[in-house]
Amino acid sequence: MLQLITIQLGQYFIGFDLKKVVKVIASQSIIEISEKPDFVLGLLDFYGEVIAVIDMHKRLNINTTHQIELTDKFVLIETEKRKIAFKADDVLDVKIFETEQVVNSQIVFAGARFISLVKSDEKIIYVYDTEAILSSNELIDIEQLTQKYNSTNAV
Questions:
Q1: What is the CATH number of the domain that holds 127?
Q2: Residues 133-152: pLDDT tens digits?
Q3: Interatomic CA distance for residues 154 and 101, integer angstroms
Q4: How many structural domains compose the chain?
Q5: Is the distance from CB of 62 to CB of 95 less than 8 angstroms?
Q6: For 42-57, how does the pLDDT look when each residue is reduced to its tens digit (9 = 90+)?
Q7: pLDDT tens across 71-83, in order?
Q8: Closest C-alpha to 68, from 44, 50, 49, 34
Q9: Which one of 18, 84, 89, 128 has the lowest number of neighbouring Cβ atoms within 10 Å?
């Protein structure tokens, strides 16, 4: 059995293991950073913790606008190393899938490995491994970005 939170990115449907989700929050202003990786929109202050906001459109090479809209959502995910916020066009629902509905895969799509596919209500959900959606170099870039921000904005 697999519990997923499903999000929409343009015409695509992405799933994350519900156990990794910290919270879903409404779109809000983020801290603009001038020198940042292309896939990072900026930083989010989440109760005093600085979290990088990842533009999933850019990260997965989905050709849609990546401006932050009032209707967007941020999905906060807990990885082994840190919390990361993924911008989603919409958060659809939480669903439970039986094992026979899940097709295991190790395919790389747009530079990120997804671990399985699920067919639900005539749509395909790409289930991504939250530990592998960003490369180790990208995680290092994010760590350096947040450390730099914290050191220049310390009280």
A1: 2.40.50.180
A2: 788 888 888 888 888 888 88
A3: 49
A4: 1
A5: no
A6: 899 888 889 999 888 7
A7: 788 999 988 888 9
A8: 44
A9: 18
